[in-house]
TrEMBL record:
SUPFAM superfamilies, per database record: Ferritin-like
Descriptive protein name: tRNA-(Ms[2]io[6]A)-hydroxylase
Cross-referenced Pfam families: MiaE (PF06175)
Recorded superkingdom: Bacteria
InterPro entries the UniProt entry points to: Ferritin-like, Ferritin-like_SF, tRNA-Hydrxlase_MiaE
Length: 193
């Protein structure tokens, strides 16, 4: 369904599970950034009422996920560490076409968002089926379903608003780029690392 060109090496889940405090802190900040991204898309495209409506829902869900992860961190006696940079997301952002028309910019930003949701979904699935911590396995299974829904929403809006843009071709370009990019990741206890 997601079309990812390279699956995450299952050993990444072992790395993640070896330092739960770090993976949870990184995950919390990923959720905060996802909410911020949805709000940014709203502010740049406020003329599209249906997009604004759906992305406000996503932003709220991402903030709820941030709170859920933070609650797990507190319940386990961990501390929410400082915000983490996400090199994967920063590299993926560089693939967005700069200086194109408004439709191209919107499509690229939506596909960028869909790509992050797709990879997060894939990582959450791996965590849900691999880690020994049953509470977290169940939690990540539920988040996997949510991320899949967000992915579908972003792709759907890219197709809806992709006037004069070959959205399927551009999505394939994103998949190819991300497939090469992800080869450098999967070695740290971070969601995308």
């Amino acid at each position: 369904m997601l079309g990812l060109k390279l699956e995450t090496d299952p050993r990444w889940a072992n790395i993640a599970e070896s330092n739960l405090e770090e993976i949870l802190t990184d995950h919390a900040w990923c959720e905060q950034k996802a909410a911020t991204n949805a709000i940014k898309l709203v502010s740049l495209n406020s003329e599209h009422v249906d997009l604004v409506t759906e992305l406000l829902i996503i932003a709220q869900e991402e903030l709820e996920h941030f709170q859920m992860v933070h609650n797990i961190i507190k319940a386990r006696g961990y501390k929410l560490g400082p915000e983490r940079k996400d090199s994967y997301v920063n590299e993926l952002f560089k693939f967005i076409i700069k200086g194109g028309n408004k439709h191209q910019s919107l499509v690229d930003r939506l596909l960028f968002s869909a790509m992050i949701e797709a990879r997060s979904c894939e990582r959450f699935k791996l965590l849900s089926t691999t880690i020994k911590d049953k509470e977290l396995a169940k939690f990540y299974h539920e988040l996997m379903i949510s991320e899949a829904g967000h992915y579908t929403t972003f792709i759907g809006f890219a197709r809806q608003y992709g006037q004069n843009v070959n959205v399927d071709k551009r999505w394939e370009e994103f998949l190819q780029f991300e497939g090469e990019l992800i080869k450098s990741y999967g070695k740290k206890e971070t969601i995308h690392g």
